Amino acid sequence: MGEFWKWVTEHSWVGWLAASAVLACAEMLTLEFTLLMLASGALAGGITAAILPGAWLIQVLVAVAVAGVMLTVLRPTLLKKVRDAPGYRSLLDQLVGSEGTATQEVTSDGGEVKVRGEVWEARTMTPGVTIEAGESIEVYQVDSTTLVVYPASQGLGWSGGAGR
């Protein structure tokens, strides 16, 4: 058993490299650059482990320092570049044009709808229009955390709109 721990101590870079690879692959599921920055810290820890095997404290400190710098300096810059790219639509922006169902009566003063399996506060885009519970709606715009909606059966009343 002592030989196993000696091998682990001498080859801890393998564990750091594996952690880095797992984090980098998991980043593909989130696309928020957080796990990628942590992966870079793990990679730095692995490089330190290859140079200084057995120096666990130094390896951890290097990994944490690199990940911290990457999270505070590089990640915001990358996110800004991605979000400023032409054609980028946030998750909220992607709700525009989505169809859903009114779960409560919706008026210009408020109401509640279900879109893409989530319940949202909503209001109609046209004052005086009432959407009954159970009626199909479409999202016209997102105003903070409130969806501005219209009855799907009515459409927008202009060609090229989301209405049919």
Helix content bin: 40-55%
* Broad structural category: alpha+beta
Mean pLDDT: 87
Strand content: 15-25%
Q: Count of helical segments?
A: 4
Question: Distance between the terminal alpha carbons, to the nearest Å?
Answer: 72 Å
C-alpha Rg (nearest Å): 25 Å
Shape: elongated
Helix and strand element order: HHHHEEEEE
Number of strands: 5
Spans of at least 5 consecutive residues whose pLDDT stays below 50 are 158-164
Strand order within the widest beta sheet: 1-2-3-5-4
Biggest beta-sheet profile: 5 strands, mixed, barrel
Offer a quick outline of the entry.
The protein is about 45% helix and about 20% strand.
Fold and architecture overview:
It is elongated, with a radius of gyration of 25 Å. 45% of the residues lie in helices and 18% in strands. It has 164 residues and is an alpha+beta fold. The C terminus is likely disordered. A five-stranded mixed barrel has the order 1-2-3-5-4. Helix 2 packs antiparallel against helix 3. A hairpin with a 2-residue loop joins strand 4 and strand 5. The protein is built from four helices and five strands; from the N terminus they run ααααβββββ.
Q: What are the SSEs and their pairings?
A:
Blueprint: H1 2-10, H2 12-30, H3 34-51, H4 56-83, E1 99-102, E2 112-115, E3 118-124, E4 136-143, E5 146-151
Parallel strand pairs: 3-5
Antiparallel strand pairs: 1-2, 1-4, 2-3, 4-5
Helix pairs in contact: 2-3, 3-4
List keywords for this structure.
164 residues, alpha+beta, 5 strands
